[in-house]
């Protein structure tokens, strides 16, 4: 079964803060479309809070729940008490292409294994609850060549199908350069064929 082509991702970064037993925790949740973007976000937050004791992280690249590209790190906390619990929350969040970083300043009171798991997973849970999402759509670039008589009808059809016209060349014929949602290619081709008696199809 192929991966979904449309899924929710963070629309903007969110940040929540909490104090537990004198330790300060700041959780940052952001969009990351690639592993490199996730790593860059983690390093940027390290640089933003250089005096923090720990910067624990987790990320899920791809559709919600996908385990093909994930990562997690405890950054000096006892193994399994930070990154893994954070990753579990992200995998069950219903959000894809997401990176979470929990920054901690140690306050002098040890929280114990269970306390750490609750603190790190809880921060991510709170961030997930307030994050606004947008729909991620895989797009392809394509073009169509058509006669002038068909331009207005084709424009309307493309608009209905969610296709963006990113370039136009007017010569003997009209060439439109398009950005097409990948999961709509067949529907777009059917609409174009109906309008032009099969004369126009997408060219990738």
Throw out a few tags for this protein:
204 residues, alpha+beta, Ribosomal Protein S5, domain 2, Alpha-Beta Plaits, 2 domains, 5-stranded antiparallel beta sheet, 3-stranded antiparallel beta sheet, 5 helices, 10 strands, elongated
Strand content: 25-35%
How many E strands? 10
Query: How many structural domains does the protein architecture include?
Result: 2
Q: Per the principal axes of the C-alpha atoms, what is the gross shape? A: elongated
**Largest sheet properties:** 5 strands, antiparallel
Portion of residues within helices? 25-40%
User: What's the order of the H and E elements?
Assistant: EEEHEEHEHEEHEEH
Any idea of the CATH class of the largest domain?
A: Alpha Beta
The fourth-level CATH homologous superfamily of the largest domain is Impact, N-terminal domain
How many H/I helices? 5
Structural account:
- This protein is of the alpha+beta class.
- The protein folds into two domains: 6-135, Ribosomal Protein S5, domain 2, CATH 3.30.230.30; 138-196, Alpha-Beta Plaits (2-Layer Sandwich), CATH 3.30.70.240.
- 31% of the residues lie in helices and 33% in strands.
- It has five helices and ten strands.
- It has helices at residues 35-48, 83-91, 112-130, 151-160, 185-196; strands spanning 6-10, 14-20, 23-31, 54-60, 70-73, 98-105, 133-137, 139-146, 164-170, 174-181.
- The protein has a five-stranded antiparallel beta sheet, sandwiched between helices.
- Strand 9 and strand 10 form a beta hairpin.
- Helix 2 runs parallel beside helix 3 (112-130) and helix 4 runs antiparallel to helix 5.
- The protein is elongated, with a radius of gyration of 23 Å.
- The two termini are 24 Å apart.
